[in-house]
Write a structure and sequence with these properties.
It comes from Hymenobacter tibetensis. InterPro entries: Resolv_N (IPR006119), Resolvase-like_N_sf (IPR036162), SSR_resolvase (IPR050639). Keywords: DNA recombination, DNA-binding. This is Recombinase family protein. By secondary structure, this protein is mainly α. It has two domains: 94 residues, Resolvase, N-terminal catalytic domain (Rossmann fold, 3-Layer(aba) Sandwich), CATH 3.40.50; 36 residues. Helix content is 59%, strand content 5%. The protein has seven helices and two strands, in the order αβααβαααα. It has a two-stranded parallel sheet with strand order 1-2. Helix 3 packs across helix 4. The longest helix has 32 residues. It is elongated, with a radius of gyration of 25 Å. The protein starts with 6 loop residues before the first helix and ends with a helix.
Length: 147
Amino acid sequence: MLKLSNNRLFLDAHQGRFDVVILWALDRFSREGVAKTLNYLQKLSASGVQFLSFTEQYLDSTGIFKDAIIGILAAIAKQERVRLGERTKAGLAKAKLKGSKIGRPTVDAEKVTHVKRLKATGISDRAIATALNISPSTVSKYLMTIS
C-alpha cells in the first residue's frame, strides 16, 4: 500500500530517475480502490515510467487493455481488503462468544499503587519489575498513570 514514504517513488519518477516500476502484485502496490490505484499508475505513466507486475504477467503498461485490467485488479484488491475486515470482525465476535478476552488487559489499580509505593522508596524500575513479576516497561507505564 502506498504510504507517505512512497511519495518518494513519484518524486523520483517525475525526476526521471528510473524507467520501470516492477510490482510484486497490484494488491501489494495499493488496496485503495480503482480510482486511486489508477491515479497512481497514471502518475507513473505521465512521468514516462512504465510498470509491470512480477506475478501478474498480463499487467503492464503496454497494450490497449491496460486500464481495464488495472481497474479490475484494483477492484478485486479493494474487495479483498473489505473481506479481510469482515473476517477479522467475525473472528473477534466468535472469540467474544467463547468468552475470550479481547484487547489489552486492564490495568490493576492495586498493582499501580504498589509500584508507586515501591518507587517512592527509591527502588529501581528493574527491581520493582522483578519483585512484582512484570516488565520494566510496564513499571514505567504504571508510574506515568494517574491513580
